[in-house]
Design a protein that fits this description.
Largest sheet: none
Radius of gyration: 15 Å
Helix content: over 70%
Number of strands: 0
Structural class: mainly alpha
Number of helices: 5
Shape: elongated
Distance between the termini: 8 Å
Length: 76
């Protein structure tokens, strides 16, 4: 849902999507986390070797793996 919200805000602006001219700190934080997850996913899928990518980027790999496990458990 955060990715959809972020895309709508990018396209139409905060006022049109949220009905107010600002985003709260929690909203901004969730959107940044979502952007990071997407960036990590793209980086890993573009890598020649997922194992090498995981070794080179252990933090992002751990975060991405945790997000995938939570997504499987609770749904998107």
């Amino acid at each position: 849902m955060e990715l959809i919200l972020l895309n709508h805000i990018d396209r139409f602006g905060v006022q049109a999507v949220m009905g107010r001219s600002y985003l709260g700190a929690g909203e901004i934080r969730r959107m940044i986390y979502t952007e990071n997850l997407i960036r990590f996913h793209h980086g890993k899928t573009k890598a020649d070797s997922w194992a090498e990518w995981a070794a080179k980027f252990p933090g992002p790999d751990a975060i991405l793996n945790e997000a995938m496990l939570l997504s499987e458990k609770y749904g998107d």
